[in-house]
Every structure is written in C-alpha cells, then in structure tokens.
Amino acid sequence: MNEQHNTLINELVNFLNGKGAHVSFAEAVEGLSAELRGKTPDNMPYSIWQLVEHIRIAQWDMLEFSRDAGHQSPNWPDEYWPEEAEPASDDAWNQSLSQIENDLNEFISLLKNADNIYEPFAHGSGQNLLREALQIGDHTAYHTGEILAIRRMLGAWK
Name one Pfam family in it (predicted). Predict the structure, then answer.
C-alpha cells in the first residue's frame, strides 16, 4: 500500500475511535451511574441506554453488511431501537458496551486489511468500505453528542 492509503486508513481509524475534536463514545459513557442509564429527560425521545443500544445495533449491522453478502439487516426503524428505556441489568449494559468495542475493532481490522476500500461491494447498491467507515464514525459521533446532552441535562457531565 502507498503512503496516501496508509494515511487515510490511519485517519479513519482515529475517526472511528473518536480521536479528534470531540469526546469519544467510550468517554461519553464512562462513569455513568446505573440509575441514570434509563432516565429520559423532558423533551428528549430516548434514554442513554436506548442510544447505546441503537449505536450497538447500527454498528453491528454495518460491520456485518461489510463482511457478509448474505447479511440481513434488522427492520428499520423498529429493530434498531430498544423499547426498554433502561438495561435489564449491569450485565446487559456491560455486554452492550463490550459488543460496541469488539465490533468496532472487527471493523477496523477489515479496514486495515482491505485491498481496496473504494471498491463497491458485490452486494448492496454501491456501498464500499470507505462509505461504511464514514457512516459508522458519523453515526456514533452524532449519538454520542446526544448522550452528552442527556448527561448534562441530568447533571452528570462536567
């Protein structure tokens, strides 16, 4: 691979890991007390738990779409958003966070090992690995901002 390609991959990895001009997902959920995970402030449609689960489901879907031509995405929007406002347990919370981290690492591995991030997938409608990387990063950053806004409303952010 050439130097420009390596530079792009490194920048995408930094973007996906939330390194840059804003708070990362991991930082946004770090230290959040269990009693606040399911709180939905006035005039907000979701709790932090629902946002975390939505990030997990959407990122998993984009990862699987990127590596498996036979992948079937969940039905939009119902299967991308949990109905429950709070996690069933600390284990459910921790499992969700763990899957987000693991799936992100899997996607980064795909990205680093791809021969051509611009080549459209044989399945889909023109998507490629670069597009999926940008979509994962953008989607996670957007909802991370919402998590921070909710934490501020709940008095649980600096």
Answer: DinB_2
